[in-house]
Design goal:
two-stranded antiparallel sheet, 10 strands, about 190 residues, alpha/beta, globular, about 35% strand, six-stranded mixed sheet
Length: about 190
C-alpha cells in the first residue's frame, strides 16, 4: 500500500536495528483516514473468504481491525492483555510475548464472542516474530473456529513471523513489507517478492 509506505518513510522512526516507531499515525496518535483505507485494502483482499468475525489484540490492532470490520460489516473482537473485574472466568486464554516491550502477556477473550461457527480474520499492526498471531490462533483453535486469513499493517520480513505463518498455509496479506533497516532508513520488499 503506497500511501502507508510513504507515511512510514516520512513519519516513522527507526530505533536500533529492529524497531520501527509509528506512533504518529498508527499506535499512539491514530490517522482515521489512513485506517479507513487500510480497512478497505484488507476487505478487498479477503472479501471472498466468508469472514464473519475480525480478531485482534489490544491496543494497537484495534483501529485497523475496527475499520476492517466496518468494511466487512462484521463484529470485531479484541483479546485483552489484562484481566479486568468485568471479565468472568469463562475465557479463552493464551500467552503472547511482546518483542517490543520484552514482556509476556496473558491474552483472553470471553467465550461468548468466539465460537465454532466463526470464520476469523486476524488483523494486527505489526508482524515480527509471530507471537501475537500464534496466541490468537491458539484461541481460535480452542474455540473451534476457523482461521480464514491474517492481515498485517506492517510486516518486518527480516524477522521469523512470516516464515512461520507461511509454513501453516494460512493466507496472509501485509500492507507494507519491510526488508531491512539500513542506516536508519526503511527498505521495503519489492512488489513481486
Amino acid at each position: 500500500m503506497n500511501e502507508l509506505e510513504e507515511r512510514i518513510k516520512t513519519d516513522g522512526r527507526v530505533l536500533g536495528k529492529d524497531v520501527l516507531k509509528v506512533d504518529s499515525f498508527l499506535n499512539h496518535q491514530v490517522d482515521p483516514m489512513l485506517m479507513e483505507k487500510m480497512g478497505e485494502e484488507f476487505y478487498n483482499h479477503f472479501k471472498d473468504s466468508g469472514i464473519n468475525k475480525i480478531l485482534t489484540v489490544e491496543s494497537s490492532g484495534i483501529a485497523p481491525a475496527v475499520m476492517t470490520g466496518l468494511k466487512f460489516q462484521v463484529p470485531v473482537v479484541f483479546a485483552r492483555k489484562h484481566k479486568s473485574v468485568t471479565l468472568t472466568d469463562d475465557l479463552y486464554t493464551s500467552e503472547v510475548y511482546s518483542f517490543t516491550k520484552k514482556t509476556t502477556n496473558h491474552i483472553s477473550i470471553d467465550k461468548r464472542y468466539l465460537s465454532s461457527s466463526d470464520k476469523v480474520l486476524i488483523i494486527d499492526d505489526f508482524l515480527a516474530n509471530g507471537q501475537a498471531v500464534n496466541g490468537l490462533n491458539t484461541i481460535i483453535e480452542d474455540a473451534g473456529a476457523t482461521l480464514a486469513g491474517i492481515g498485517i499493517v506492517i510486516e518486518k520480513s527480516f524477522q521469523k513471523g512470516r516464515q512461520m505463518i507461511d509454513k501453516t498455509g494460512t493466507p496472509i496479506y501485509s500492507l507494507a513489507r519491510i526488508k531491512a533497516f539500513e542506516n536508519g532508513q526503511v527498505v521495503f520488499e519489492e512488489e513481486d517478492d
